[in-house]
Specification:
The chain is an alpha/beta fold. Helices cover 32% and strands 26% of the residues. The chain has 13 helices and 23 strands. Helix 3 crosses helix 4 and helix 3 crosses helix 6. The longest helix is centred in the N-terminal third of the chain and has 25 residues. It is globular, with a radius of gyration of 24 Å. The protein starts with a strand and ends in a 17-residue tail after the last helix. The chain binds flavin-adenine dinucleotide and nicotinamide-adenine-dinucleotide (NAD). Flavin-adenine dinucleotide binds next to helix 1, strand 2, helix 2, helix 3 and helix 9. It comes from Myxacorys almedinensis A. Its cofactor is FAD. One of its GO terms (cellular component) is cytosol. Belongs to the class-I pyridine nucleotide-disulfide oxidoreductase family.
């Protein structure tokens, strides 16, 4: 049987692009379909515009800091329209660079929404296309709770990058990655922010130290943080959008804008998966360790599967798929060493287990020497920069260590440049670094990262 393509990729986000390029490098005849813009969520509505906005929101704090260093100048003013337009230009530049790089690799780009008609055939813009292997990399989309009246008045993060103007006040529903990042950034722009999280803490799943420290710092900065609280109803009124809260903070808050950030779900609508029998787990595509679905020639990577919703994970899964299928080189994704960062102020970066997860996995019981299996080392210090900036902005670091073999099970940082500091440690973490190896390492002085080598 001959097909139009060796590989057809649905979705040109990080997962699809990485797979297409790697397969083409191995000589495969590849096409990629994109219903919207090349680059997917990450480039167009996620990591890239978010981080640019985070940088933009930092300037008032930096302006306040430079006075401590002797600089004098009146506070800068933001022209929101200029920021939105500069950010759009940069994103367009990235999209164009993807077009050039796909063309250079001989990958055909098809603009439009792909739909399965059988396990080897897709339809795109009414044109049937056949492929030997098909990779689903359609990503995810923001979900909204179905049970809140007036939820249609809430926007999702997709709208936040092209707002006509900044709101004066904002209610954020959900205190996960997106909720915390947007609360922090919008507050930096001068917006009054109310963050509503139904769980007892924000950033559930991170180490408890991160959850409590970040919440305390957000509150100190003036962000109203309501945990153990849910939204009962939303209503558009003359004064703005009124949000009825229930739980620990039963009250009504009125704001100009409501952002719903309660999670993202796979973007499978209209893909025709039911026709070809690809197995789903809830709303996600079920895959094995090789990213193969229940239909043998169809694979899936990234946010449409039930793994981690992060760009580097989608990319790694895409690459690993192409290595295995077109390079005959099996390489498994190491999900235990995936780091992540929350671009809030303070910034968070973390890899491995939280203290609670480590205790659950390895037990809290005493070993023969009578000590606990899990030891946590923690340090809080004022980075040199902030001694003159006059900001109260301590950095907090934590190592979670298995007392039995001295192995470091988790590394957690809260503070300036946390993601950049953690990056190098991730490599050591993957290699099974021990606490003693941390202790024996000489740091760079003066820096914040050196504190990891003197932590006890
Ligand atoms: C606000 C926000 C901030 C984020 N920040 C970070 C961050 O800082 N770091 C990080 O690691 N992750 C971040 N993420 C998550 C990251 O964006 C995703 O994990 C990543 O983009 C997933 O890649 P993907 O390839 O699986 O899917 P996507 O990037 O979602 O790409 C899927 C593509 O498929 C296309 N598509 C869908 N259906 C079809 C179809 N039927 N036919 C053709 N094309 C189709 C879509 O248009 C889309 O372009 C963020 C997400 C959001 C929303
Ligand atoms: N920096 C990054 O790497 C980054 C940034 C943004 C997004 N992402 C990815 O995107 C995914 C989605 O992000 P997200 O923040 O939307 O989801 P999330 O799963 O991180 O957080 C959602 C939060 O909303 C809360 N919640 C759910 N329903 C609620 C309700 N009715 N009322 C109040 N709170 C409610 C949950 O308890 C949770 O804390 C993340 O899991 C992450 O993988 C990553």
């Amino acid at each position: 049987m001959t097909y139009d393509y060796d590989l057809f990729v649905i979705g040109a986000g990080p997962g699809g692009l990485a797979a297409a390029k790697r397969a083409a490098n191995y000589g495969a005849n590849v096409a990629i379909a994109e219903a919207n813009h090349l680059g997917g969520t990450c480039v167009n509505l996620g990591c890239v515009p978010k981080k640019l906005m985070v940088y933009a929101a930092d300037f008032p704090r930096l302006a306040a800091a430079y006075r401590g260093y002797g600089w004098t100048q009146s506070a800068p003013q933001l022209d929101w329209a200029t920021l939105v337009s500069a950010q759009k230009q940069h994103i367009e530049h990235i999209r164009q660079s993807y077009v050039r790089s796909l063309e250079k690799s001989g990958i055909e780009i098809m603009r439009g929404r792909a739909r399965f008609t059988d396990s080897h055939t897709l339809e795109i813009n009414d044109r049937p296309i056949t492929a030997d292997k098909i990779l689903i990399a359609v990503g995810g989309k923001a979900v909204k709770p179905g049970n809140i009246s007036g939820i249609e008045h809430a926007v999702t993060s997709d709208s936040m990058f092209s707002l006509a103007q900044l709101p004066k006040s904002l209610v954020v529903i959900g205190g996960g990655y997106i909720g915390v990042e947007f609360s922090s950034m919008m507050h930096g722009f001068g917006v009054e922010v109310f963050l509503v999280e139904r769980e007892p803490q924000i950033l559930t799943g991170f180490d408890e130290l991160i959850c409590t420290t970040v919440r305390d710092r957000l509150q100190e900065r003036g962000i109203h943080t309501f945990c153990n609280t849910s939204v009962k109803a939303i209503e558009k009124t003359e004064n703005g959008i009124s949000v009825d809260l229930e739980g620990e903070h039963t009250k009504t808050v009125t704001a100009d804008l409501v952002l719903c950030a309660i999670g993202r779900a796979p973007n499978l609508e209209g893909l025709g998966l039911e026709q070809i029998g690809v197995e789903l787990d809830g709303s996600a595509i079920v895959v094995n360790h090789s990213s193969r679905t229940s239909v043998s020639n169809i694979y899936a990577v990234g946010d449409c599967t039930n793994r981690m919703q992060l760009t580097p994970v989608a990319k790694t899964e895409g690459k690993a798929f192409a290595e295995l299928v077109f390079g005959n080189y099996p390489c498994e994704v190491d999900y235990d060493s995936v780091p992540s960062a929350v671009c809030s102020r303070p910034e968070v970066a973390s890899v491995g287990l939280s203290e609670a997860q480590a205790k659950e996995k390895f037990g809290t019981c005493a070993d023969q020497s009578g000590s606990d299996r899990i030891t946590s080392y923690q340090s809080e210090f004022q980075p040199l920069f902030h001694t003159l900036s006059k900001h109260k902005s301590e950095t907090v670091i934590k190592l979670v260590v298995n007392h039995k073999d001295d192995r470091v099970l988790g590394i957690h940082i809260i503070g300036d440049n946390a993601a950049e500091v953690l990056q190098g440690f991730v490599l050591a973490f993957r290699k099974g670094v021990t606490k003693k190896e941390f202790d024996d390492t000489i740091g760079i002085h003066p820096s914040s990262a050196e504190e990891f080598f003197v932590i006890d």
